[in-house]
C-alpha cells in the first residue's frame, strides 16, 4: 500500500484530501507545517508528498528544495491557491513533479497521484546520447551541448529538449508534451509548455524549435 504524506495547514482541506486518499486505498500521514513535513519524510517510508505552498514555519517551496537534496527524492505534487504561470514555473523549477491549483476536485488530485506513482519505464537504453540539429544531450551525464559548446539546462528543460529531439522533425502538441514531460493527465496548464519552450529557444537557439500553428512545436533536425 502506497504511503502518501499530506502537508496542509488548513484543517478542512486536509481532512477532505485525507479521506479521498484513504477511500482510494492509500495510507496517509497528515502534517500541518513545513518542518513537520521534512521530519515525516526523514522518519517514514513516504512514496509521495502532497505539498501546500503557504505553510507555517517553512513555506512549501523551501520544503521542496530541501526534499530535492535527498539522494532518492520523493515525488511531490504541489497544491496552492496561487495559479499564475509564474508560481507554476517556480514550483516546477524547484523540482515539483506536478502542480495543482486550488480549488480542485479530489478526483483530479487522485488522477495526478496515480500518474506519479506509476512505475517508470526502464531507464536502460542503448543510446547514451541524442543528437539533432547541432544539439547533443548526454543521457548518462545529463549534460547538453550546442555545436560542442556546453549549455546548462534545468532538469525540466532537459526533459523537454529530450522529448522534442527524440521526435525531431515531428510536430508535438502541447498536451503531448505536458503528458510526456510533466505527466499531466488533466490539461489546462499548457502555457507552462510555452514558457519552457521559450527557455529552450534562448539556450539552444530559436531556429531549432519551430511553432506549428494550431498544433504545438517541432524540433528541427
TrEMBL record:
GO cellular component terms attached to this protein's record: cytosol; protein-DNA complex
Keywords in alphabetical order: DNA-binding, Phosphoprotein, Transcription, Transcription regulation, Two-component regulatory system
Domain annotation OmpR/PhoB-type: ranges: 127-221
Domain Response regulatory: 3-117
Pfam families registered for this protein in UniProt: Response_reg, Trans_reg_C
Domain of life: Bacteria
Annotation: DNA-binding region: 127-221
InterPro entries: CheY-like_superfamily (IPR011006), OmpR/PhoB-type_DNA-bd (IPR001867), Sig_transdc_resp-reg_receiver (IPR001789), WalR-like (IPR039420), WH-like_DNA-bd_sf (IPR036388)
UniProt GO MF annotations: phosphorelay response regulator activity; transcription cis-regulatory region binding
4-aspartylphosphate sites (modified residues): 52
GO biological process: regulation of DNA-templated transcription
Protein name (record): DNA-binding response OmpR family regulator
Species: Ornithinimicrobium humiphilum
Lineage of origin: Bacteria, Bacillati, Actinomycetota, Actinomycetes, Micrococcales
